[in-house]
Predict the structure.
Amino acid sequence: MSAASDEQTKRSRGTSGQLAGGDPRLDALVHRLPPRLARTVDYLLQPSSRWVRIPSGVLLVVGGVLSFLPVLGIWMLPLGLALLAEDVPALRASRSKVFDWIERRKPHWLDLSAPKK
């Protein structure tokens, strides 16, 4: 494991030592993001950021539903649902199913040793 990945792993763990998203597969996907975006996602996944995460998720879902308007896009819908899944148990089960699908179909997405593109 490189020093950069060690630093990102430390950053993605909360003060209690738990993974920020609670799921190592989510942390593996966050690890593949560009550093600036990864820091933002890590912040949103922290338990203390709940009051930022919920409104952001709702706004992204609404923006995804209104994707026929300029500037807004369908990409906002899954991102908003992923943020809301941290706080809504029914969405958390769906997120787990999506991660299971990713493990079966795209295992290289979850490989921490793979280089970033």
DSSP finds six helices and no strands in the chain.
